[in-house]
Amino acid sequence: MLAAERYDRIVELINIKGSMRVSELSERCRVTEETIRRDLDRLEQAGRLRRSHGGAVSIKEDQPEIPYRIRETTHAMEKKRIADAALTLIVAGDRILLDASTTAGYMAANMPDMPLTVLTNSIQIATELSSRDNIEVISTGGQLAARSLSFVGPLAERSLETYHVDKLFLSCKGVHLESGSISESNELQARLKQKMVGIADQVILLADASKFGLRAFARVTGMNAVHTVITDQSLTEGQISLCSNYQLMIRTV
Predict the structure, then answer these.
(1) CA of 200: how far to CAs of 105, 134, 164, 190, 225, in Å?
(2) Distance CA 216, CA 186 (A)
(3) Poorest-confidence range of 14-28, 89-103, 159-173, 183-197?
(4) What is the pTM of this model?
(5) Residue 224 DSSP symbol
(6) What is the rounded CA–CA span in Å between residue 40 and residue 94?
(7) Which pairs count as long-range contacts for 224-229, CB under 8 Å and 24+ apart, including other chains?
(8) What pLDDT does residue 68 have?
(9) Rg of the chain over CA atoms, in angstroms?
(10) Residue 62: pLDDT band with limits 50, 70, 90
(11) CA separation for the pair 171, 65 (Å, rounded)
């Protein structure tokens, strides 16, 4: 592989995963780690990526979110099955937090009208649950992210700090089991979800199999913060084995 081809390959891999370590790139490109370090230095100087400790990250920092209406139709059947399984974990009297994911939106659409407190940063979910007589809905407020129909930013983060919930139903852009990380496409969403994890007794990760193996730009939290993963049956045996390393419950639907 010529140096120019290797540069393009490195940038492509990092843009897909969000970040990569020198050792990973060395293995993928079949050159020494020292060669990769020199490549990364050159690529950073050229403005094609940013160096980090032990590797590099994509400079596509604020990657545009996929609009809600498009996400709603992507892996829709898997998301609906995951949402139905998640609903079985809710009992009357629970205080729950739903993020602005389409899977959480499917949960809201089918949520029974029983005594619950639902905290959310999603306009879609707040609207969906507004007709339920027995569900108290609390919105975070904050800066409107129009593409995801959600509230983000400092005001939304401060709002979360005033609450405590029994269960958080969390989705994400990527689940990378090898590094034990959950990630989002942009920093605003990641920061808000970090706050969500911090106020919940239980963190229930809702992720279809397409999310596994991906590392998006901004890290949300580690897998050790998750108590339960609900995913679809497309997960491989190897991925299930890696999940078991984090001592969490796995439910496939």
Answers:
(1) 19, 22, 6, 16, 10
(2) 8
(3) 14-28
(4) 0.73
(5) G
(6) 49
(7) 224/180, 225/197, 226/170, 226/182, 227/202, 227/203, 228/89, 228/202, 228/203, 228/204, 229/204, 229/205
(8) 52
(9) 19
(10) very low
(11) 14
